[in-house]
């Protein structure tokens, strides 16, 4: 009943925001200032001071210069006109990131998570004169919220640089800046009590939403409540904030779903559907149903009412995946995150909005120190199983690309975009994809070679103190080949081949051992398959231009040049050592 009530509140919140979807399924053409940038034939970049964006975000052309600005993600022939092109100038003082942060008040959700901690650490280290940071924490009362703040943030390893700087006054400094707020993005008015809500609304300058459920195969009702309903409720709260300068949403580059080729940095509008974009020319697009967020919420509520408690969990997972695939997304996580972006766009009004879309976020590249991470990220279970000799093959396109970006680069890009658009204060929505696949791709077969080299140079140690020698990772293109490989590998690793009868039939004991190992690996492969065979490459032109706006000092202090990453050095000397130290806590390593 609790989940039902939260979804009901989400549905109520959504009705006002979704009037657009009931009256006009497509985004109407809109005038956007400084929306499209392009490179001239000379050394100066140029930008448009006025442009008209077509309703389906299709191909954009420079009318005067005749140069292609954006490649389409859809099939329409509508054009974007770019007029009044003027020289683009970068000032020597750059964006003014630290200047912007000074004295500002922030409301941050998801602050106890991995990326949230990296963000807070960087803010307090580079701009200790920020006013305060309100941190929304799910807790039963203020005392519990303060306890979580101290245990999960103040005591985290990532803040050791700040501990060294402030010494004995570290806790005093942190508690003067960080204000725990009892709340929940899944509740009406964020679950904040009335007095606190009014106080925050009066003081806050920037809202950052990094709260999310990132489980790929999560229950649809749960993912919808936090990833779609959460941004909606936050935007409702944002409209109560008197001095708000910016609303920043941390999304994911994979909201682009099953788009292929070079994927541009364009916002979602209510009703957008990737499946509609991918329809062949000549097909009647009107025959394909529009995506309506409120209809999805109603579907969940009605489905839950018809299910018994024993079947609701599995059925909600199945419905989520079915709906995601129907509209062109690979799983429930990215589908509900995309709908969250749609809600923000439909509700924002005059509030400046920035959407940050990182790809797979992994350990820090440099700051506050290399290799810090918390919990296993996307590629880490595969790395750990392989290093322990428990996984010698995986379902993957050897020539495919894993789009990875270090957490500190994501945070630096976030702060740069925040300062730029927060200073400008212009209504509109700006999208930044912080990703590597288009400019510095990490190819799977190269990654496999890096893992092999690392674990042969620095192997895991088993429970008896012996080094675990791993073979080269076998990269397989079909589930059938993977299953066959896993079965044979499980038999070999079990050391129980003598339990097979003379005809080669497995004993019951050996079969059970192998089946468990194989099923675990196949489950992982099934979840990851849309990503290990992903055909899209995330364009990051907006993000690169953002970097061009920065001064030399800002690039040094807030750098996010993913093109500069040496993947072999990062994977072998930064990420895996960080994984072994901070996640595995040194287990399986030489003392």
Automatic annotation (TrEMBL):
Its EC number is 1.2.1.84. It holds the Pfam family Sterile. Residues 108-414 form the Thioester reductase (TE) domain. Gene3D superfamilies: NAD(P)-binding Rossmann-like Domain. Residues 514-585 form the Fatty acyl-CoA reductase C-terminal domain. Signal peptide: none annotated. The keyword Lipid biosynthesis applies. Keywords: Lipid biosynthesis, Lipid metabolism, NADP, Oxidoreductase. GO terms for cellular component: chloroplast. It catalyses: a long-chain fatty acyl-CoA + 2 NADPH + 2 H(+) = a long-chain primary fatty alcohol + 2 NADP(+) + CoA. One of its GO terms (biological process) is response to herbicide. Catalyzes the reduction of fatty acyl-CoA to fatty alcohols. Belongs to the fatty acyl-CoA reductase family. PANTHER family: FATTY ACYL-COA REDUCTASE CG8306-RELATED, MALE STERILITY PROTEIN 2-RELATED. This is Fatty acyl-CoA reductase. The lineage of its organism: Eukaryota, Viridiplantae, Streptophyta, Embryophyta, Tracheophyta.
């Amino acid at each position: 009943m609790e989940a039902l009530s939260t979804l009901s509140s989400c549905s109520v919140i959504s009705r006002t925001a979704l009037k657009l979807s009931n009256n006009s399924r497509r985004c109407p053409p809109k005038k956007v200032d400084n929306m499209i940038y392009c490179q001239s034939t000379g050394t100066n970049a140029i930008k448009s001071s006025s442009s008209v964006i077509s309703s389906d975000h299709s191909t954009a052309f420079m009318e005067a210069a005749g140069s292609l600005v954006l490649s389409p993600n859809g099939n329409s022939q509508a054009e974007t006109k770019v007029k009044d092109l003027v020289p683009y100038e970068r000032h020597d003082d750059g964006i003014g990131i630290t200047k912007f942060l000074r004295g500002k008040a922030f409301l941050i959700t998801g602050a106890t998570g991995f990326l949230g901690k990296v963000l807070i650490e960087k803010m307090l280290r580079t701009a200790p004169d920020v006013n305060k940071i309100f941190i929304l924490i799910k807790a039963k009362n203020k005392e519990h919220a303060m306890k979580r703040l101290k245990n999960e943030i103040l005591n985290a390893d990532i803040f050791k640089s700040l501990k060294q700087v402030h010494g004995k006054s570290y806790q005093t400094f942190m508690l003067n800046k960080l204000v725990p707020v009892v709340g929940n993005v899944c509740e009406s008015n964020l679950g904040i009590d009335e007095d606190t809500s009014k106080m925050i609304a009066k003081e806050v300058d920037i809202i950052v939403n990094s709260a999310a459920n990132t489980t790929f195969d999560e229950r649809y009702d749960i993912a919808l409540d936090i990833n779609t309903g959460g941004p909606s409720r936050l935007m409702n709260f944002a409209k109560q904030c008197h001095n708000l300068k910016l609303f920043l949403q941390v999304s994911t580059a994979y909201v682009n779903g099953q788009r292929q080729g070079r994927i541009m940095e364009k916002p979602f509008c209510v009703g957008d559907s990737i499946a509609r974009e991918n329809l062949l020319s000549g097909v009647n697009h009107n025959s394909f149903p529009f995506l309506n967020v409120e209809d999805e919420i109603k579907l969940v509520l009605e489905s839950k009412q018809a299910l018994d408690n024993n079947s609701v969990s599995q059925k909600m997972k199945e419905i989520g995946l079915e709906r995601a695939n129907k509209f062109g997304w690979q799983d429930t996580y990215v589908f509900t995150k995309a709908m969250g972006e749609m809600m923000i766009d439909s509700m924002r009004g005059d509030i400046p909005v920035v959407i940050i879309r990182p790809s797979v976020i992994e350990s820090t590249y440099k700051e506050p120190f290399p290799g810090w991470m918390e919990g296993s990220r996307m590629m880490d279970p595969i790395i750990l199983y392989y290093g322990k000799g428990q996984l010698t093959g995986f379902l993957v396109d050897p020539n495919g690309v894993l789009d990875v970006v270090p957490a500190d680069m994501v945070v630096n890009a976030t702060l740069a975009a925040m300062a730029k658009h927060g200073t400008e204060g212009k209504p509109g929505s700006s999208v930044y994809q912080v990703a590597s696949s288009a400019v510095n791709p990490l190819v799977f077969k190269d990654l496999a070679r890096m893992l092999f080299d690392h674990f042969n140079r620095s192997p895991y140690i088993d429970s008896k103190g012996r080094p675990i020698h791993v073979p080269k990772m076998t990269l397989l293109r079909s589930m059938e080949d993977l299953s066959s490989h896993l079965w044979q590998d499980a038999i070999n690793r079990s050391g129980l081949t003598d339990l097979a009868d003379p005809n080669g039939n497995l004993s019951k004991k050996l079969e059970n051992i192998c089946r468990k190992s194989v099923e675990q690996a196949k489950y992982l492969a099934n979840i990851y398959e849309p990503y290990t065979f992903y055909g899209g490459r995330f364009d990051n032109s907006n993000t690169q231009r953002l970097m061009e706006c920065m001064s030399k000092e800002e690039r040094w202090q807030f750098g996010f040049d993913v093109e500069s990453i040496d993947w072999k050095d990062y994977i072998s000397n930064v990420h895996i050592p960080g994984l072994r130290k901070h996640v595995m806590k040194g287990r399986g390593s030489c003392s």
